[in-house]
Design goal:
This protein has helices at about 80-90, 120-135, 210-230, 245-250, 265-270, 270-280, 310-320, 350-360, 375-385, 430-435, 440-445, and strands spanning about 45, 50, 55-60, 95-100, 135-145, 180, 205-210, 235-240, 290-295, 325-330, 365-370, 425-430. By secondary structure, it is an alpha/beta fold. The chain has an eight-stranded parallel β-barrel, surrounded by seven helices. Strands 1-2 form a two-stranded antiparallel ribbon. α1 (about 80-90) packs parallel to α2, α3 (about 210-230) runs parallel beside α6 and α7 packs across α8. The radius of gyration is 22 Å and the shape is globular. It starts with about 45 loop residues before the first strand and ends in a 19-residue tail after the last helix. Flavin mononucleotide binds next to β4 and α10. Pfam families: Oxidored_FMN (PF00724). InterPro entries: Aldolase_TIM, OxRdtase_FMN_N, YqjM-like.
């Protein structure tokens, strides 16, 4: 049987073992009928050898859906094709595969994916090929959970669906209590500060990494990156955020080492810089490299100091020379006691600050904004020259504006000040889970006529 063309002579997407048509217009891009002005949000963006078809990216989202035991451990499955595939089909520019462990002990849970073995490449290739076949770019977030590793999938930890309460995963369910690692070792260094025998705690006591372990770790990040390239992945993101291993090293609160990986800014950023350098060495020059950080751990008042926006700005200025193309600006995750002022600009304002500081230094670094981006106009304005919105300096403690009954975050009204764009791309997570066709919705709200997948063309765009 030949899968090479349909009866309209559409040759199909090459390199796949099945027929899927080449779309006349890539989903999520303006089509020939569009007469509306195209906002930056829907303009392509080239980064090294790859082009984003618009500026809406699916942020990495853990799904805890790979095998914890046996030969398939850590390998992606058809579940990932179905979930990530539909974001690609429905117009997202780049679809990130969730935090993927570069070592078995680098997974968050026993059911998280990994890329520590060549055996994991074919399954990744299937997911990546499908994403790429729809005109999106496949991305993977490489990660090491450090002292937040070996925890259980959230739905197993509480009767409340979606609960964020963590629970330890023991060896009986595929966990690795003996091999949870961090910059520091011992019971006093569990993430939540509760000893690993305390039934109310959710984390294991880490073992402090030796310099030898760190050399192996850096090699393993590079090997995982090489495997991602072999699997056809187009973009790699290093996970340096949310209190996972790299963040644990960056923060003076969680890193009190006295060797070359601790101490001042230079020591605490050393691991990250070694990882970036090792990855850049083994991936093609044409491949974009992204980095996600927690731009602040919301602990500015800590007596030990903290990883704050100023630290992020200092780091951001080093990134272009190291070969990082885009900084994805998230926050939090390293301290259970942190109070995060959640409102719909809480992280975007920080992205804006970092972008302005890097630009003022004459450096070229793309900035990604993420966090509570749910509305079309909001996404458009973040990227628009002259349409940017501002509230304070990004960490000035704007109080959460929460609806008392529904507990929902209330959108804040902000004034436009005619400034520069706040970011170059937006990354969106939960809104895509609510509404996988969010790109079509955004285009519709902004009055744009955009391409849909060929198979969906009998759906009327106006009726969305
Ligand atoms: C279910 C779920 C899983 C997540 N997994 C990851 C992850 O693997 N890596 C990561 O950096 N962030 C992860 N995040 C954070 C998101 O990427 C995103 O930064 C955050 O949800 C804020 O964006 P949003 O308001 O658009 O959801 C996850 C978020 C959710 C809701």
């Amino acid at each position: 049987m030949s899968f090479t063309r349909d009866n309209h002579n559409n040759p199909g997407v090459k390199g796949l073992p099945y027929f899927t048509p080449q779309h006349a217009v890539s989903p999520g891009t303006p089509n020939a009928k569009n007469t509306a002005p195209v906002p930056t949000l829907f303009k392509p963006l080239s980064i090294r050898g790859s082009t984003l078809r618009n500026r809406i990216l699916v942020a990495p989202m853990c799904q805890y859906s790979t095998a914890a035991f046996g030969p398939e451990t850590g390998s992606l499955t058809d579940y990932h094709i179905a979930t990530l595939g539909h974001y690609a089909l429905k117009g997202a520019a780049l679809v990130f595969i969730e935090a993927t462990g570069v070592q078995p002990s680098g997974r968050i849970s026993p059911n998280c994916p990994g890329l520590w073995s060549d055996a994991q490449i074919p399954a990744l290739r299937r997911v990546s090929d499908f994403i790429n076949s729809q005109g999106a770019l496949s991305g993977i977030q490489l990660a090491h959970a450090g002292r937040k590793g070996s925890t259980a999938a959230p739905w197993t930890t509480s009767s409340k669906p979606g609960s964020k309460i963590s629970a330890r995963a023991g060896a009986d369910v595929g966990g690795w209590p003996e091999d949870v690692v961090g910059p520091m070792g011992g019971e006093e260094w569990t993430w939540d500060g509760k000893s690993s025998t305390d039934p109310s705690g959710g984390f294991w006591a880490p073992r402090g990494l030796t310099e030898e372990d760190i050399s192996q770790l850096v090699e393993d990040w590079a090997s995982a990156a090489e495997r991602a390239v072999k699997a056809g992945v187009k973009v790699i993101e290093i996970h340096g955020a949310h209190g996972y291993l790299i963040h644990q090293f960056l923060s003076p609160i969680s890193n009190r080492r006295r060797d070359k990986y601790g101490g001042g800014f230079e020591g605490r950023t050393r691991l990250l810089i070694e990882i970036i350098t090792a990855i850049r060495k083994v991936i093609p020059e044409t491949m974009p490299l992204f980095l996600r950080i927690s731009s602040t751990e919301w602990q500015e008042t800590s007596k030990l100091g903290s990883w704050d926006v100023e630290s992020s700005i200092r780091l951001a200025k080093l990134l272009p020379d190291l070969g990082v193309d885009l900084l994805d600006v998230s926050s939090g995750g390293n301290n259970p006691q942190a109070k995060i002022p959640m409102h719909n600009n809480y992280q975007v304002a920080i992205a804006d600050r970092i972008r302005a500081a890097v630009k003022a230094d004459g450096k070229e670094l793309l900035i990604g904004a993420v966090g509570l981006i749910t509305e079309a106009e909001q996404a458009r304005d973040i990227l628009e020259e002259g349409g940017a919105t501002r509230t304070g300096n990004g960490t000035d403690g704007v109080e959460a504006d929460i609806d008392k009954e529904t507990k929902a975050v209330v959108q804040m009204t902000e004034t436009k000040d005619g400034g520069a764009p706040q970011a170059d791309v937006v990354l969106v997570a939960r809104q895509f889970m609510r509404e996988p066709e969010w790109v079509f919705r955004v285009a519709y709200k902004l009055g744009l006529d955009i391409g849909w997948p060929s198979q969906f063309l009998r759906v009327s765009f106006q009726k969305l």
